[in-house]
Amino acid sequence: MATKKSMPKRQCIGCGEQKEKRELIRILRTPEEEIVLDATGRKNGRGAYLCHNSQCLEKAFKSKGLDRAFKTAVPREVYDRLREELTAIDQ
Q: Helix (H, G, I), strand (E, B), or coil: what is residue 82?
């Protein structure tokens, strides 16, 4: 009898829901202190996860979710750039 492989779960920094890792988008702080979207989910650096919708990004902005996840202040320009990249992925 084959066993079912469990998928790792991660928590969205916007809404706080636990979802499977593949259902979320990874936001990454690279060793060079740059914050980018990681579409592959395999790049090196500290990661935070976000649902595929802009409402969760807005909640993360209001609650300073990325600041807490990365333990550093995240400028507004980074949120704007992430918003643009997120809308590009959705289309």
A: helix
User: CATH number of the domain that 79 lies in?
Assistant: 3.30.1230.10
Longest dimension (CA), the chain: 52
Residue 80 maps to a domain: yes
d(CA 34, CA 57): 18
pLDDT, one tens digit per residue, over 10-61 is 999 999 999 999 889 999 999 998 998 888 888 899 999 999 888 999 999 9
SS3 80: helix
E runs forming strands in 2-78: 9-11, 18-20, 25-29, 35-38, 46-50
- pTM recorded for the entire structure: 0.84
